[in-house]
Amino acid sequence: MGSLPPEQPEDAPDTYVGLDEHEAGRRARARGWTTVRALPPGSIITLEYLAGRINFEVRDGTVVRCWPG
């Protein structure tokens, strides 16, 4: 039997919008996200879903968009 994927933290991604990138990352890890990914606007990324990951779109050091997976 394989291992189960990590569970998604019960957290509202919108609460990170407007935060400093570093503060958002600290909060996300403290709330149980196993992977925190910060991306510049317009980044080309693959669309695979990874449970336990939170994505931040960061402009000028501030989170402007956030989504799980």
Quick summary:
The chain is α+β, with helices and mostly antiparallel strands and 69 residues long.
Q: How would you describe this protein?
A:
The chain is α+β, with helices and mostly antiparallel strands. Helices cover 14% and strands 28% of the residues. It is built from one helix and three strands, in the order αβββ. A three-stranded mixed sheet has the order 1-2-3, with helices on one face.
Jot down its keywords:
69 residues; 3-stranded mixed beta sheet; 1 helix; 14% helix
Measured distance between first and last alpha carbons: 24 Å
Instruction: Give the DSSP E fraction (strand runs of 2 or more residues).
Output: 25-35%
Characterize the largest beta sheet: strand count, sense, and whether it forms a barrel: 3 strands, mixed
Number of helices: 1
- Given the C-alpha coordinates, what overall shape results? globular
**Roughly what is the average pLDDT, rounded to an integer?**
90
As laid out across the biggest beta sheet, the strand order is 1-2-3
How many strands? Answer: 3
Task: State Rg.
Answer: 12 Å
Helix content: 10-25%
Pick out the low-confidence regions: none
